[in-house]
Amino acid sequence: MSLYLPVIYGSVRANRKSIHVARYAVARLRARPGIETRLFDPQDLPFGNLVHREWEWKDAPESVRSFAREMERADGFILVTPEYNFGIPGTLKNLLDHLWRQWHFKPFGLVGAGGMVGGARAVDALRMVVPGLKGISVPTAVLVQHVETAFTADGPAKDREEWEKKFDRFFTDVEWYARALARARMDDPPPQR
What we know:
Structural class: alpha/beta
Largest sheet: 5 strands, parallel
Strand content: 15-25%
Number of helices: 6
Distance between the termini: 28 Å
Mean pLDDT: 93
Number of domains: 1
CATH architecture: 3-Layer(aba) Sandwich
Shape: globular
Order of helices and strands: EEHEEHEHEHEHEEH
Number of strands: 9
């Protein structure tokens, strides 16, 4: 069973360092057999502040409609986020809140980046948000400490093999959840509310 697992990045700040982690995640996923992926960067999406959810937005730009379609067809998601003041960037929460049914009954793999604890508090915050989207948070996560020195545009600055192992173990778990939940959604369609 092939899977579509898009990577969603969570920041629009200038001089973003954790974007390197998101790009690395996409590269590692593309190397895995049977996986389709792509990066969704909020800088490329015209969401702005949440005024209308996607389905309420009359004359939504094609980029918004396309994003909604891509999330609908996804089998699961990888969220890569820096940690801002012990939480997630408002940009990421805003992006997630624009959609609704597209997230339902699908797994979310979480990657935190930054500081001494590798974005652990941002990952913990997402573990509270994901159930509100009717999603499933995969227990395994990747935490990148000191992202500004740990990753460059070329990937890990050092310990490349160790990072490959961490991400591959993480992706193996995300894929398991994605396959299991895809079968469940097919065999017993979830309630529509």
